[in-house]
Hints:
Layout: H1 8-32, E1 37-38, E2 44-45, H2 47-63, E3 69-71, H3 79-82, E4 87-95, H4 97-102, E5 108-115, E6 118-126, E7 131-136, E8 140-144, E9 152-153, E10 165-169, H5 175-184, E11 188-192, H6 196-202, E12 208-211, H7 217-229, E13 233-236, E14 255-258
Parallel strand pairs: 3-4, 10-11
Antiparallel strand pairs: 1-2, 4-5, 5-6, 6-7, 7-8, 8-9, 12-14, 13-14
Helix pairs in contact: 1-2, 6-7
Amino acid sequence: MSLDDLNLxxxxxxxxxxxREAGDRIMEIYGEGFQVxxxxxxxxxxxxxxxAHRHIVAGLRDLSPCLPILSxxxxxxxFSERARWQTYWLVDPLDGTRExxxxxxxxxxxxxLIHEHEPVLGVVAVPxxxxxxxxxxxxxxxxxxxxxxxxxxIQVSRDRRTKPVIAGSRSHGTERxxxxxxxxxxxxxxxxxxxLKFCLVAEGKADLYxxxxxxxxxDTAAAQCVVCEAGGVVTDLGLSPLRYNTHDGILNPExxxxxxxxxxxxxxxxx
Length: 271
């Protein structure tokens, strides 16, 4: 299957609907209350994670029966099987479960379509704000607000602000991140949960999001597509684009989400 065989606009429109519906199910549980369990890796799990997972998987199977699906809440699929996938859906049904538990609204639904190791479609829904970000290869990146009939095209900022705006994790700060910020010097730090940090870069509200700590592929793929279609880049610390399903594990390398690729952020990285 080539990229030309994929009707990205059709798939994107339907993925947006599926993500919004999953967000509605999350918000129902958010309002009713929930218990918190923990998976084997000690990360939290709620009924909202599973409700969103079931809805998304069912919706994507109806939409594209021939394409496999990898979700954070799926049973583990061995790389021997995944290695044969040229095109597949990569899903985080509830990104930012810790923020969901804290009830700060900073959680998202992430749906990406991966083709030949690259995200070519991405949807990031923000249920608590009734907002959605969408992108697909060649179609640009858009932000959808509830009152708007159509999505608004978004682009990264190339302005060289006197104090660069840097997005950082609300729940996963690291010593390496602190060292990086000290090397940058004067800056404005915006702390936020989930893939919303990518979206801040994509819509021009932040210049950089450095992630100097572990993440999984389903955490980043959808938002990477949004950033790239908005004119930014998402790279490892060697400035190579993040790629997917290339090895046995599902962990990403540390990475940078950069609005202006001509700006040299690499020089601030800790040794």
